[in-house]
Write a structure and sequence with these properties.
The complex is a heterotrimer. By secondary structure, chain B is mostly beta strands. In chain B, 7% of the residues lie in helices and 57% in strands. A 5-stranded antiparallel beta sheet of chain C has the order 4-3-2-1-5, with no helix packed on it. In chain C, strand 2 and strand 3 form a beta hairpin. The longest helix of chain C has 8 residues. The chains are: A mainly beta, B mainly beta, C alpha+beta. Chains A and C meet through helix 1, strand 2, strand 3 and strand 5 of A and helix 1, helix 2, helix 3 and strand 5 of C.
Chain lengths: 95, 89, 98
């Protein structure tokens, strides 16, 4: 049993490293993970947001927030430790 | 002000603006609220904005409909924003 | 919940384990202490942004803001002296330090 790790231990190991977050809905974010709490509220530094263009939802807009952010854990769907965003993913390229 | 709900507490018996989901807006006197932000508003003006696209020109047509309701209950989970009237400080 | 999450919030006081990443840890509550009373950008999941001074917030991420400007699709649409934002709509709170 001791070789098993808890899901959030994986995220704890990602502190100080890049992380890629997929939110409920279509928004995605990347940044350096600074910390998190029991609710998986996340502090990200140098965050970059990828969200659908309000005028054409099929276009994804990349926005550098140039700030530290607190991400609401309620809206988090998927976390990819070490992930650097949709531009780096095979899945994103194939669409 | 120590917690956000204090802002609502200080607005009791005042006219407030409430922005809800689905482009619904309300203006009315705040009679009561609870921790979920369920609210009872009186003398309410409801504004519903809808955007439709003209089939021929493709232009967006924004229509605002208003109606008045004497008293209503707002379920807290549809609330996005509440703003008290501007205070002259 | 898991001990990992608890560690993340308590790490700054932890003696002995001081890897570079642990020293740089910044929990959500550390972040909030740093931005209270400062200009922030609050983004809702609808895409609407609210820029103003963060007056206070609670555990639901309900937010009270002052001198708030509302931006829909990047366009200034409204201003509020004080406003309350219900936490379930909040996607993130960004500091405006840079």
């Amino acid at each position: 049993m001791s070789n098993r790790i808890l899901p959030l231990e994986l995220i704890d190991k990602a502190i100080g490293s890049p992380i890629w977050i997929l939110m409920r809905g279509r928004t995605e974010l990347t940044g350096i993970l600074r910390g998190f709490d029991d609710y998986v509220n996340l502090v990200l530094d140098d965050a970059v947001e990828y969200s659908p263009d309000p005028r054409d939802k099929s276009v994804v807009v990349r926005r550098e927030l140039r700030a530290e952010i607190l991400l609401n854990g309620n809206q988090v769907a998927v976390m990819v430790p070490g992930g650097t965003g949709p531009e780096d993913s095979m899945a994103a390229r194939s669409t | 002000m120590e917690e956000p709900l204090d802002l609502i507490r200080l607005s009791i018996d005042e006219r407030v603006y409430v922005k809800c989901r689905n482009d619904r807006e309300l203006r009315g006197r705040l009679h009561a609220y609870d921790q979920h932000l369920n609210m009872v508003l009186g003398d309410v003006e409801e504004i519903i904005t809808s955007i439709e696209e003209d089939d021929e020109t493709g232009e967006e047509i924004i229509t605002k409909k208003t109606r008045n309701v004497g008293m209503l209950f707002v379920r807290g989970d549809i609330v996005v924003l509440v703003s008290p009237p501007l205070r002259t400080s | 919940m898991s001990s990992a999450a608890t560690d993340a919030t308590q790490a700054p006081e932890k003696a002995g384990s001081s890897s570079a990443s642990e020293q740089n840890k910044r929990s959500p509550s550390d972040f909030l202490k740093a931005v209270l009373g400062r200009p922030v950008n609050v983004r809702l999941s609808s895409g609407t942004d609210y820029r103003g001074v963060l007056a206070c917030l609670d555990g639901y991420m309900n937010i009270a803001m002052e001198q708030t400007e509302e931006y829909v699709d990047g366009q200034l649409t409204s201003k509020y002296g004080d406003c309350f934002i219900r936490g379930n709509n909040v996607l993130y709170i960004a500091s405006q330090r840079r």
